[in-house]
Amino acid sequence: MVDQSEPRPRKPKPAFEPLAKWSSPSELEIVDLSEGDGDELIETESPGAKITVDYLCFDAATGYELESTWEHEKAFQFHLTTLIDCWSEGLLGMKVGGRRVLISPASKAYGGIGAGHPKSGRALVYLVDLLRVEYI
Fold it and tell me: pTM value?
């Protein structure tokens, strides 16, 4: 979902490449690149709560970029209850203004091969900038 709030200056897309050691994670790994100093994401089960993010998504095995929000005019907004496991677990404790890398096995992302999503069966690496947390 694209953020419909007022326009804000877009930061340039970060130069980022997944590390080779992240190519086949067996469990969720979290790497903070910068901590942030805003509101902290403290729960992901809150009905109606939302986050606004910019992110890059890579196939962990190949390093190929699969998705980026930086090509869009506005950041993306997600309801917390709709997040995939690697996000709902991996973004907890993150503060607005922070940048975090999530290295996820397929089981914490979109499931194994044949699970019905184009990214099923893939270990994924996400670079996530947390821009806003809203608890409604």
Answer: 0.88
Cβ atoms 75, 131 nearer than 8 A: yes
Q: Is residue 90 within 8 Å of residue 30, measured between CB atoms?
A: yes
pLDDT > 70? residue 79: yes
**Cα distances (Å, whole numbers) of residue 131 to 12, 22, 54, 59, 135:** 14, 25, 7, 24, 14
Contact 34, 128 (CB under 8 A): no
Secondary structure of the chain in HEC code, one letter for each residue: CECCCCCCCCCCCCCCCCCHHHCCCCCCEEEEEECCCCCECCCCCCCCCEEEEEEEEEECCCCCEEEECCCCCCCEEEEHHHCCHHHHHHCCCCECCCEEEEEECHHHCCCCCCCCCCCCCCCEEEEEEEEEEECC
- What is the pLDDT at residue 133? 94
Backbone angles phi, psi at 124, to 5 degrees: -125, 150
Q: Is 15 exposed, middle or buried (0-12, 13-18, 19+ CB in 10 A)?
A: exposed
Fold of 25-134: Chitinase A; domain 3 (3.10.50)
